[in-house]
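Exercise 3.2. Students should predict the tertiary structure of the chain below and write it as structure tokens, then compare their answer with the key that follows.

Predict this chain's 3D structure.
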Amino acid sequence: MLIVAPAISSAPGGWLAARLAGAEAWLHIQDFEIDAAFEMGMLGSDTQQKLSVRNSIEILERWLLRRFDRISTIAMPMLKRLEAKGVKPNRLVLFPNWVDLEVIYPLTETSPMRVELEIPIDRIVVLYAGNMGKKQGLEIAIEAAKILIDRAEILFVLCGDGAIRSELEQSAQGLESVRFLPLQPVERLNDLLNLADIHILPQRADVADLVMPSKLGGILACGGASIATAYPNTEVANVVQAAGGIVCPPDDPKQFAAQILALAQDPSKRLVMQQSARNYSIEHLAKEKILHAFQIQLGL
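Answer key:
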């Protein structure tokens, strides 16, 4: 019985169903939603009472995690966090997200979405595509757009939906250099990703190594030149840099904007980054390679 979290609230029912069926209970964790909620202050500030609540929830979480026969997650720092929560190493499995490289790939011609959206070929599209929630720290993208307001050649495109989209739209009012797009159907994903000249991957510092954004795989598979906000030696920073991308601090809009401007003005550097990104995806993110490594871990 395989249970995928989030939401961790599905785990008790899945575990019970596995036991009633006489099956193994396997929990796969995409991100640590409870840890992230506390770190971002979504469940209150760290008063003594709130600390007591957090301790109680974490005790319950550790008890639940130890009930599962196997627990997998998508990055090494997340495996280490599970060990810190009391899960025995012999029950842990690394199972990263993969990308279907035949579905997501670099287009040899201009993305048809650029034509549909009437974006001139000489404008530099800075794209964010994904969930618009508190974990993403997308406020830095709006701040960067404000800093670069006089650079008419740069267009920020924010595609997706989420809890703070309306706040972002309000913050971006009056900025002609920012456009919002709705969620796109999955069959348009490759066209959407290839719309970008530069991909941005904002991430709040307080969720570093609690989550590993799955959108990064698509960015690399389409051969995207990327700029991420992350501190050194976090998993996001390590992957982005290994794939030829740029990393800057999560809390520095001026540096973020400066990196965007520099890359917008350097098409030859973007080309090198695009090639590095695609090569990294072929070497590390291909579905067949990840499944093969997964099978080896399980002795299959």
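Discussion points: The chain has a mean pLDDT of 92. The CA atoms of residues 20 and 286 lie 36 Å apart.
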